Amino acid sequence: MVAIAVADRNDHDPVFEQGEYRETIRENVEEGYPILQLRATDVDSPPNANIRYRFVNERAAHAVFEIDPRSGLITTSGPVDREKMERYSLVVEADDQGREPGPRSATVKVYITVLDENDNTPQFSEKRYIVQVREDIRPHTEILRVTATDLDKDNNALVHYNIISGNSRGQFSIDSVTGEIQVVAPLDFEVEREYALRIRAQDAGRPPLSNNTGMASIQVVDINDHAPIFVSTPFQISVLENAPLGHSVIHIQAVDADYGENSRLEYKLTGISADTPFVVNSATGWITVSGPLDRESVEHYFFGVEARDHGSPSLSASASVTITVMDVNDNRPEFTQKEYFIRLNEDAAVGTSVLSVTAIDRDVNSAITYQITGGNTRNRFAISTQGGMGLITLSLPLDYKQERRYVLTVTASDRTLRDNCHVHINITDANTHRPVFQSAHYSVSINEDRPVGSTVVVISATDDDVGENARITYYLEDNVPQFRIDPDSGAITLQAELDYEDQVTYTLAITAKDNGIPQKADTTYVEIMVNDVNDNAPQFVSPHYQGMISEDAPPFTSVLQISATDRDAHTNGRVQYTFQNGEDGDGDFTIEPTSGIIRTVRRLDRENVPVYELTAYAVDRGIPPQRTPVHIQVTIQDVNDNAPVFPAEEFEVLVKENSIVGSVVAQITAVDPDEGPNAQIMYQIVEGNIPEIFQMDIFSGELTALIDLDYETKPEYVIVVQATSAPLVSRATVHIKLIDQNDNSPVLKNFQILFNNYVSNKSNTFPSGVIGKVPAYDPDVSDRLFYTFERGNELHLLIVNQSSGELRLSRKLDNNRPLVASMLVTVTDGIHSVTAQCVLRVIIITEEMLANSITVRLENMWQERFLSPLLAAFLEGVATVLATPKEDIFIFNIQNDTDVGGAVLNVSFSALAPRGGRYFSSEELQEQLYMKRMALTGASMLEVLPFDDNVCLREPCQNYMKCISVLKFDSSAPFIASPSTLFRPIHPITGLRCRCPQGFTGDYCETEINLCYSNPCLNGGICTRKEGGYTCVCRQHFSGLCSPAVACPLLSHSCAIWGPNFSLQLKLASHPARWLGLQGRRCADGGFRCQCPAGGFETPFCEVSTRSFPPRSFVMFRGLRQRFHLTLALSFSTVEPSGLLLYNGRLNERHDFLAVEIIQGQVQLKYSTGESSTVVSPYLPGGVSDGQWHTLQIRYYNKPKVSALGVVQGPSKDKVAILTVDECDASVALQFGSEIGNYSCAAEGVQTSSKKSLDLTGPLLLGGVPNLPENFPVTHRDFVGCMRDLYIDSKRIDLASYIANNGTTAGCHAKHTFCDSSPCKNGGTCSVSWGTYSCLCPVGFGGKDCRHRE
């Protein structure tokens, strides 16, 4: 049978799945955002189908996009800005990397369109708009148009305008679309001369962006729209009639609210005649005298004055002026008659009034006096001034026989001017007897109900004269209408009804006169007594009464007093007061029967009864009694005794979101049962309005929104409002709940689903239920969302519930194949929709990955925060630290640490090594991250904590048993959701197992076996014990169990030494230095020989035994691990008095450690097993900082616990450490050092603790410690010098087999170069010291180099 293998030629080009690709992306997506997955296939075999992708036209990507060369995934690499470039045309090449005959490639065009995001704010065309507007402009007239532009497009660039401040009077409106500003209410220059409007330009994006910096200055231009107004009107003034020409009488003033010429006034007089003696100054308004004044001719002047402005057209105002001319004494008195004639009887009594004369003075307030200046013979007459007249009286008796005629000259004078008249008096003869009444006084009694016409009494008089001088006539001196007297008979009769209540008595003066010349008379008095009859009802003083009283008046407070009178007398006229028939305000009032004072009975409440209508009665005591009612109205005066009352102490107000800023969105009112000023309520917001969101009208309670109310920003505001009716206040909590409007698009960002699929033979844990939801939400809470896959899910790998957005995985994914699928998901609320990319990543988690994984701990971190958005940063950081692509790092678990108090997240992952396709081992990952933890913190921006302790460090096993950590993994955990990631974790479950290791035995592993008992080392090799085994110390040319080396086969990748009982294989990856040496080997008979390259490699195996340590350097080796005993030896050389030689602790720097330092020239060991520290300090005279080589040896062991019978029962609590320096007999120094002369080159320390072992899980560090934030328990952190010959458990350690090297170099540059040139002459022996050399010269020579003969 012949098998023919056909070798593939690279004869096929890669083929893209599509002829061209078109994709859209929203601007401003984050860097690294996946856009499009390109796939090209090649039917050639894998070596010729290893496709790599790249951009052909790299410049066309504008540093915005990058393509993954392996997967073909195009992602963003920089900011995406549609305003800079909206469309990209890229050319992608797929190269198959073929070799025979050469690589082949294919290209495809990719068109990427950038969708607009609302990321630009509208910008106004001008910083400030200025316009001048006449104040009489008609409403709804356009005065200005503002414009703003937005660099976005479509709705995002659609700008709407509104006025946000400066329009408190509502004078202007702005068209929200065009920006046209109109006057909508009359302007008034005199009220406001300039308006500063702040304009907002807001686009229609979601969410909208706005620019509030637009300013419009509207300057109002004055017009003549105000007529002048006089300061006071009418104008009234007085002026003396002798005022001179030009005298200022009154200042007429008017004001005009206009401005400039529109307010300059001119005055003129109106309604005057040509002879009006006044003029006005047209500019100043002063009225002055322009002609003579005469009060006696014209006392008052009435005319008008007009004030007219200089506006166009001009406006005017008029006012009336009244000027009163005041008198001066410029007229003499004048008698009304020049001649008077009178007759006077000679028996006229002295003092008799004879005649009154009258003079008139046209001047006002003139005082006229009268004098008799002539004709008064024997001074028989006198004159006096009474009431402006001159009364002439008889001053001395007359005598008809001496003078029968007088002509008196009477003068009237006003003290300055005078006038005369003449009075002619003729004297006549006398009547001798007078009439005489029979009685000087008459008294008569009569009932008031006496009928009219009846005679009351008859009186009579007698006269002794005869004739006419004796004829008597009777007169009533006073006119009393109730009575009359017969002039001839003297009978007095009743002429009108009498009323006792009007008048009780009448006194009539009756005169009897004769008819002589002169007449003589006698007078008598008649007293008529009227008797009372009960004929009058009481009469109230007022037809009705009104009273007021405060509602807080105490009981029995006087309200008012009513009063009634009864015209009757005595008991008929005595009045009492009462309430009857329940007309006393339901008992709220009482009345005092005698005084009529109405009082309250109890406290009143105006809010229950504001006005009382009462009826009181006045009753007399006559028989029968008479009564009179009166209406009384009592008004209860309000007292502010009721606080305002809100509808409830806590209530809701519903307000639609997006209400116009400055509009009234609600009205909150309270009621006050009081009235008037006591019921006036003032409102204010006292809590919950910081910052100022609402403004409340102090009087109406109207609530005005000062900001855009957005339900999605804040759905509810809680304020406390206060209603005040001083001093009473009331408060209420108001929940202002916004009513949601569908004004927001759903929010959905790109997200990924990381499905860690751990397929094991033990169980199938494929997630068949809901794994999570599409991370979309709608700020509008009332919206219902609908979810669909737009494209990319044609195979239905993901199943979405269209109404809930719940996601499930298809059973098609239940396999062991990885997958990356990009899909577009659309979410809509029925009006708005949004589309985002969903990337499904299926990662197959294998047992190998889990076995080579570690868990790091992140501080102040939790699952959701880590997944969004810090997952990518963590991957970048780990990739940087491990120098491996981030695609080769596999995070399979994130889990909150529940064993600590803070927020600590455990992240488990594995990683592929950069070359060779193998995974980093857990130990390698620990060592790398231990060294570079700060670098990882810096690269990932996450706080990485030290590693946690292994469960075995708690020493759960007995005696010398070894604890083995066992990890199991649970893949049944649910997905973890964050806003951008759904992550399926694989939870590690930690367990342990105890076993008795090699070198120990016993039922409870309590006894250690000395494995050197059988002398396993050959050819004179020395067997040295170590924990769990032994080490053979061999002679030269022997190794392993001290067997001789044999010839080796020629290998391409390793150099191997084979012996009868061992094998040693050196690999390139772990021992690069030695591999380079073995590359130059020459195999000879019976063995091999390695030719070592330059660089400090030493024969026979090209190892490094010596290293130089500059400042701040160190080298790291695998740690000493968990130990019951160990030995360590090391040589060093330094001239520094202090330094750190070695340190081995735990990965988290807790508890156990072993450290060797040089302190002040002496070596010091410090160690701890977790509970305390012990210092071991030998002493070497002269110290170790002399530049010479010194050797230290450490022996550590746990004393076995021995029973009383001498049986070993496992480890004890005592841990012993011995430190020896240079060639020193440790047993002698420890036991007899102080006795033989300060022999202290060795020292011992014993530490007692409950821990059994020394747990050194961290790396072994020589020469320093890394720059980590931990507080290492050492005094110094570095070493300057050289080290060589490191032995652990008697086995030499190749100093080139480090894990990490930080600045050290092979060899000791300060020690090994000076003697190579044989500087010592004449047979001198050269020895190297630090940085120089010295020569031991033979006898007869001296000097530094033995050149000088002695």
Automatic annotation (TrEMBL):
GO terms for cellular component: plasma membrane. Residues 17-124, 125-230, 231-335, 336-437, 438-540, 541-646, 647-748 form the Cadherin domain. SMART domains: CA, EGF, EGF_CA, LamG. Keywords: Calcium, Disulfide bond, EGF-like domain, Glycoprotein, Membrane, Repeat, Signal, Transmembrane, Transmembrane helix. Disulfide bonds join C996-C1005, C1337-C1346. Residues 1104-1308 form the Laminin G domain. InterPro entries: Cadherin-like_dom (IPR002126), Cadherin-like_sf (IPR015919), Cadherin_CELSR1-3_9th (IPR056286), Cadherin_CS (IPR020894), ConA-like_dom_sf (IPR013320), EGF (IPR000742), EGF-like_Ca-bd_dom (IPR001881), Laminin_G (IPR001791). Residues 948-1006, 1008-1043, 1311-1347 form the EGF-like domain. One of its GO terms (molecular function) is calcium ion binding. GO terms for biological process: homophilic cell adhesion via plasma membrane adhesion molecules. It is found in: Membrane. This is Cadherin EGF LAG seven-pass G-type receptor 3. It comes from Columba livia.
